[in-house]
Amino acid sequence: MGARRFFVADAHAVGDRLTIDGSDAHKISRVLRLRDGDEIEIADSAARVYRAVLHLADGNVSATLSAAIETPATRGVAIDVAQGIPKGAKMDFVIEKLSELGVAEIVPVESERAIARDIGEAKLERWRRVAKAAAAQSGRPAIARIAAPVNFERLVARFVSYDAVLFPWELAAAQPLRETLPSLIANARRILVVVGPEGGFSHAEAETAQTAGANVISLGSEILRTETAGLVVLSILRYLTA
Hints:
It is a single chain. By secondary structure, the protein is an alpha/beta fold. Helix content is 32%, strand content 26%. The chain folds into two domains: 2-69, CATH 2.40.240.20; 78-241, 3-Layer(aba) Sandwich (Alpha/beta knot), CATH 3.40.1280.10. It is built from seven helices and twelve strands. Strands 6, 7, 8, 9, 10, 11 and 12 form a seven-stranded parallel sheet that branches. Helix 2 (90-100) packs parallel to helix 3 and helix 2 runs parallel beside helix 7 (226-241). The longest helix is centred in the middle third of the chain and has 18 residues, at 121-138. The chain is elongated. 32% of the residues are buried.
């Protein structure tokens, strides 16, 4: 029921009646054309998911939580992605697909070769809407967090809060990930994947990241696009940590 899952703020319990407004109310009444008494799913801020019965009257939309839904146990490994901000609408695609793959947080990064800069609040809010829609579509119990953009220096300062930091770089020594990655993430509970923008990371940035504890890795002989690299690494990590 991915298309019928909606997210609400705060923690709730069976029996609560919630008001639904904004774009979610529009989707329920005008896009999905649901009716009074139809069932939807509600996910709250505590990542609990409920069945809920709709109430549609006088243009208002609300729902009563009727039963809790058991969700699969969350994987013990939280994976965040720091993404060099690409130009155009590529970031929308990255956020959508990383959200579907279960990333916990996406951190937009303004790096040396990034073309897109000065990200405003309107664009940030759009990215958060994309993450919300992707979570609903894929049936996730929680929405991927979209952090405010940071510069490269502030990103590096965050490395200490992770058990493993993976830094794909096209100039890294060519070593097969099947041989190197398992040992790099052994016993890790928080992993950060750092992906460069269209122009990649500079030598200085790669050296700074490595000095700060990042593991510089190769994704093979092909140079992947910025919107592809993170998806590849996250897919491999999901395979190794599932």
